[in-house]
Amino acid sequence: MPFCPQCGVDNPAGARYCDQCGAMLIPVPAQATAPASAPTTSVPAIGPTVCPQCGQAAIPGEAFCDNCGAPLSAPSRPVAPVAPPPHSAAPPQPVYPPPTPVTISPTAPAQPAPTISPVSSPPAAPPSYQAPPVQPVPARSPVSPPTPAPVSGRTSLAPSMLVVVGAGVPLPLPAAPQAIIGRSDPVSKFYPDVDLGPYGALDQGVSRRHARIFVQGGQVLIEDLDSINGTLVNGQRVLPFQSRALADGDQITLGRMLLRFQA
């Protein structure tokens, strides 16, 4: 007969839960000899009892259901029948009383070690020093391109000349402090001091008043008179109304006409 590990009461064969306390029963194998007859307690027949938990019929007088262990004193309610466990299910495990919880008193937190403040000492005075005197850097003058050495005492363009490159025609400059270089225009009755018209000046973009060549400080200079096609000296453009010094052999370009200056 199943033996209750909780209260020690023998239960009917086939019961899985104790009729007395509802604990899960431990199956006990049948003995060869019949146990001594124990005095039976008469249980009044109350009639068939149904488990309110699983709906299984219970023996009158039982306090707990043999099928699910539910107390039979609870009001019955319709519950869907529970299928019996398969034969391969593991045997029920005995129910033991829950272990008594052990209360562990918390350990008091360790007290931090007392801090020892260092002995404060007066701050040391910063070292006194003097910055070395700053030596002034001499300013550098901009490097200017070398200019031709002026001819001392020169006040006239003569005996200098302009040579038309390609044609090889020399054009002497007048014995005057300055001269206008361009091409003549009979309609406006303008005739420059150095006329380049007979050498194809119109087709090569030379203006009527193209440039001015003059003597200043004993040096020959050339100045563009805001011409349409501009003036170049050795391939460098001469800005309008800004002079450029000339040296012997310099190449002068008026429009597309190439000249050579001979001092």
Structure description:
The protein is an all-beta fold. Helices cover 0% and strands 19% of the residues. The chain contains no helices and 13 strands. It has strands at 49-50, 57-58, 161-164, 169-172, 178-182, 194-195, 211-216, 219-224, 231-233, 236-238, 243-245, 251-254, 257-262. The strands form three sheets. It has a six-stranded antiparallel β-sheet with strand order 4-3-13-12-9-10, with no helix packed on it. Strands 6-5-7-8-11 form a five-stranded mixed β-sheet, with no helix packed on it. A two-stranded antiparallel ribbon has the order 1-2. The N and C termini lie far apart (148 Å). Mean pLDDT is 76; it is low at 32-36 and 38-47.
Please render the helix and strand layout as text.
Layout: E1 49-50, E2 57-58, E3 161-164, E4 169-172, E5 178-182, E6 194-195, E7 211-216, E8 219-224, E9 231-233, E10 236-238, E11 243-245, E12 251-254, E13 257-262
Parallel strand pairs: 5-6
Antiparallel strand pairs: 1-2, 3-4, 3-13, 5-7, 7-8, 8-11, 9-10, 9-12, 12-13
